[in-house]
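Still learning folds. Look over my entry:

…
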Amino acid sequence: MAIGAPALGAVADRWGRKPALLWTSGLLCLAALAAPLAPSLPVLLALRALAGFAIGGGHISFGLVAEMTPRRLRARILMLLNGAWVAGALGAGSWAWLAIGLNSWGWRGLLWGAAIPAVLITLGVLTLGESPRWLWNSGRNDRAVKRLEGMARGKELPPGTLEPSPARAAEGSAPSAWK
């Protein structure tokens, strides 16, 4: 995770939030589905390390949510997202206790169960759109406007939605996607 977080964060900054999340979740899904089939301990450890690297990219979802959530709801939504991570960690521990204690599949059963969230996350990421803020900041202004219009579901964008942020304009970088 310590290596995956900065590496995958850089991928998200360069190529976009959605591609980075797709790559991250796909890698996690691949590692999670392959781990129960590992023929040896070294292969299992390598797959678990790969899964840990991919989990390091999970923080990209926080950035995507922050960039797509109205300011007035942002703190609450991010707290819910963080709570989901905590609930997932608690659920993983509970699943481990049940899988090891109640089923004859042993550690392989535990890993098959752990693969379920990885598959669901990957399917969920497929439904996401790119962050309009990232599109705008990377010079894809037409796509950013189309994305915002799509998010508005036919409603007109409020005046001033796409005004340059004073701080960014002062430093000469790309404008913020919205206030």
Residues 71-102 form the longest helix (32 residues). Residues 133-171 form one domain. The chain has nine helices and no strands. Residues 91 and 176 are 38 Å apart (CA to CA).
